[in-house]
Amino acid sequence: MSTREPSAGHAGESRGGAAAPRVRLVDVAREAGLSKTTVSAALNGTGRLSPAVREKAVETARRMGYRPNATARQLRAGRARLIGYVVGEFAGEPWTYLDSPYFARLTGATASAALRHGYALVMLPAGTLQREWADLPLEAVIVADPVADDPLVADLLAARIPVFSDASVAGRPGAHWVDLDTDAAVRECLEHLRAGGARRTALVLPDNSTRFHREVLAAYRAWCAEHGAEERLTLVPEPGNGPVVRAVERSLGQEPRPDGLFVVAEASPPLVMDAARRLGLSVPGDVRVVCVSEDESAAHADPPVTTLSLCPEEVAEQGMALLVAALEGGAREGGTREGGATQPGGSVREGAAAVPGGDGRKDRGPEGPARGGGGPEGPGGDGREDRGPEGPARGGGGAGPEGGSSTPPGVLLTARLRVRASS
Questions:
Q1: Are strands 201-206 and 233-236 parallel, antiparallel or unpaired?
Q2: What does 201-226 look like in DSSP terms, one character per residue?
Q3: Nearest of 390, 219, 177 to residue 308 by alpha carbon
Q4: How far apart are CA 59 and CA 47, in angstroms?
Q5: How many CB atoms lie within 10 A of CB 361?
């Protein structure tokens, strides 16, 4: 039998298991033989201290398990540093957005970006009611993909809580946004399919009223009109692999049969391939496919599936930077002014599902941003100039000097096209 010495326990816990008195700043100062002011400066990274003194204070605090009193800090600063987060698109099914690869990655990236800026994310259920957030000390709320005329946005702004969302909130005092050049993204995908020989491209789209999905439909219809192509639209009544796969089967069952398929409703790409095969169709021989997806299984499908990535990590990074700049820019008095950024370049990853025999890789830019596509040289490009990180926004117009906003007016990023090897 082996024996062990009793553990000293975790910081803040006595040997008997009872909670020990909280370690105070003055306790750290006494232990380190330094003044309370010196220790405070060392822990906050301020003051003119020698490296040795600063290291001594930090190491003593760590060893003693000192943790700053968050409540006291909030009282001194008058801020809780909490940001709410809700996905408007899933109002009928709270929390199910975490099943979506796109929203799961967007949520994680947003929480991570907020933490790096010193904020914590408070998850709210989609379709949240005022009583669920009214008593929370929220400094702002992120409303991802709100539906048209979302009452939550109006309620938050009426309560003078800044809102961060897409360009549907542009122009409203207290609202900030990052959006995507949806028209360019859709055109790039459709031209991509057309270049592979598709002349009857069908669209599978969620049946909801978010700005992104409305703009996808408008861009698809405009593209079809320009090319003399018949519109072939199949709406998906609810999210999930099952409903989307059934919609894909309905779409591919049309006569004459589509030879191109643009699946915007989120589903596992291999399941989309399976749906085509069950109908006796080969991919890409009979039908070429592009899916809007963040699901990594697309690269491992047989054959690999071309995907349009909405780059949630970049959306989160750009959005949080704009929101924090607004919150910390002192624009709260009288409601923050609106500002925003448009990201035109979605990342299109090409697999054999769209272009048979693809065996190269062609990058159209260093950083593939969110839901757009077709930069000045891309297939769906319109010759727009890349104006760099301080360029003006498109589609919503961030407040410029006349508006008095302290946030940058917008950011334009370049798309990239990745070609996967054919399987």
A1: parallel
A2: EEEEEESS--HHHHHHHHHHHHHHHH
A3: 219
A4: 17
A5: 13
Task: For residues 419 and 350, give the distance between their C-alpha atoms in angstroms, rounded to a whole number.
Answer: 4
**How far apart are alpha carbons 147 and 88 in whole angstroms?**
6
Rg for the chain, CA atoms, rounded = 26
Report the predicted TM-score, pTM, of the whole model to 2 decimal places.
0.70
Task: Report which of 246, 178, 250, 174 is spatially closest to residue 212, judged by C-alpha positions.
Answer: 178
125 pLDDT band, cuts 50/70/90, is: confident
Residues 76-108: pLDDT tens digits?
555 678 999 999 888 777 677 888 999 999 999
Separation of alpha carbons 327 and 289, rounded Å: 43
Q: What is the DSSP track for 367-407? A: S--SS----TTSTT-------GGGPPPSSS----TTTT--S
CB 342 within 8 A of CB 180: yes
Phi, psi at 57, each rounded to 5°: -65, -45
Q: What is the distance between the alpha carbons of residues 7 and 15, in angstroms, rounded to a whole number?
A: 8
Query: What order do you get walking across the sheet with 163-165 strand by strand?
Result: 120-123, 82-87, 138-144, 163-165, 175-180, 339-343
* d(C-alpha 57, C-alpha 210), whole Å: 52
Rounded CA separation 369/159 (Å):
33
Contact 162, 174 (CB under 8 A): yes
72, 121 contact by CB (below 8 A): no
| 30 Cβ contact list (under 8 Å, min separation 6) | none
Instruction: Name the token pair of 343.
Output: 């990201």
Number of other CB atoms surrounding residue 139 within 10 Å: 18
In sequence order, what are the beta bridge partners of 340?
177
